[in-house]
Amino acid sequence: MKKYIYIILLLAVTLMAAGCGNGDDYPPPVPYIPTLVRPTPAPPPDLTVPVGDPFHGFVPDQRDYVEIEFWHIQSGPQLAALRDMIEAFHANQPYVRVNEVRHLDDTHLFNALMMADGMGTLPHLAEATIFDIAFYRGLRMLLPLEPFMNDPVVGIGPAVKDDIILPFRETNIFDGYWYGLPFSMGVPLLFYNRNVLNAAGIGVPETWEALVNAVDTLTIGFDYIIDSEWISLLYQRGGRFGNRDGNVNFTSEAAIDAMEALMGLATHPNAQAVTGEAFAREEVAFLIAPSFLMPDITQTVGTAFNWGAVPFPGTDNNRAIEFSGHSIVMFENMNHGINARVGAWEFMRFTLDIEAAADWVLASGYVPTRNAVVNLPRLEQFFTMSTRAGAGAASLPHGFFRTRVAGSEYVRFILLEEMHEIRMGRISAEEGLYRAQERAEALFE
What we know:
With 445 residues, this protein is an alpha/beta fold. The chain has helices at residues 76-92, 106-119, 130-138, 146-149, 157-163, 166-170, 194-200, 208-215, 227-236, 253-266, 276-280, 294-301, 338-350, 354-364, 371-374, 377-385, 391-394, 408-423, 429-442; strands at 6-9, 33-36, 66-72, 96-102, 125-128, 173-174, 177-178, 181-186, 188-193, 220-222, 271-273, 286-290, 307-311, 321-322, 324-330, 399-400. The protein folds into 2 domains: 52-185 and 324-374, 3-Layer(aba) Sandwich (D-Maltodextrin-Binding Protein, domain 2); 188-322 and 402-442, Periplasmic binding protein-like II (D-Maltodextrin-Binding Protein, domain 2, 3-Layer(aba) Sandwich), CATH 3.40.190. It has 19 helices and 16 strands.
């Protein structure tokens, strides 16, 4: 039985395509929210219990064939790319087979993992968001990766660790210990219909101000969940999601200004809450959406019209863009023998292979997670030939993850609720942020 008592509340809401500019009240996009009876303190790293010596009994030349389970949420072009990566991994060694298990979305994956934890049937590996990693670690569900990373036989060594792009390193390290490897990472991009812009005599906006001016004439689509866009605007204005003490910081002048700027555009008469399909159908001239939509839009649009993509607009002096996405984590399950654990680690390590990671980036629309992948000649050539495909990589120097705060998974739920109220015009940006601040602070009183 777990040391910490928790209740999982899963809230699923159907996302209906309704325009936010005309005042239609679409349901708020509510993610899962794991609700604790009492806050779970982050435990100190433990490299010996219950793992023990992770390589005790492991003999490379006498290892057993193993099958491992990898749970994920990839679909469409990303699922095809993942399966190609797994087959490439199988072709390189005869000892480990990866069986991928697809879940519908983060909510379903989280729910399945919590049920599996209670039943003692956790998979070997799974994708996890930055919020999930902190939560799973708090319940001691994860294996720290240091013993695997530092092993002289199957490890990766300091050179590979240091080659992982800094924000992707930082988001997987807790108290100096690694708990995940970055995998499917993305950034918000500005997609645009070049034909429409040319006809209107409007250039591609590189700043938020230029985008606002363009939307006075042309249409724009936003996703239903836009907290990443607000945080990007917040950091561009010098604000921060949290302070040095790990508490939220939603009521600063920068925070309010960023929210007013975002909602001013998201509720513009020419703005709609839509998906990538609307852009592909030429229903909007602009679309702010994650980079992983690139393969879908490319496939759907084909040669129907000329389009492009650029990094999320910033200011003249600051191009800050929030990263989002998933890492791969390894679960603590006493039923997993040492050969399975090493095999699971070897697949994790393979996702960092330069050539395999480059194939993944090219096919999936996710951004590179290693500098060596960014600088790979064939990737550089591809990005040069297709600037829209390189928009995600062009965002890397400006990317960051939001500040870790106490109860970050609960805080995000609160923020999304208040942002929905602001977007519907029921409260002002300032009122919504003050309410979010008060609710977040009340969590741990």
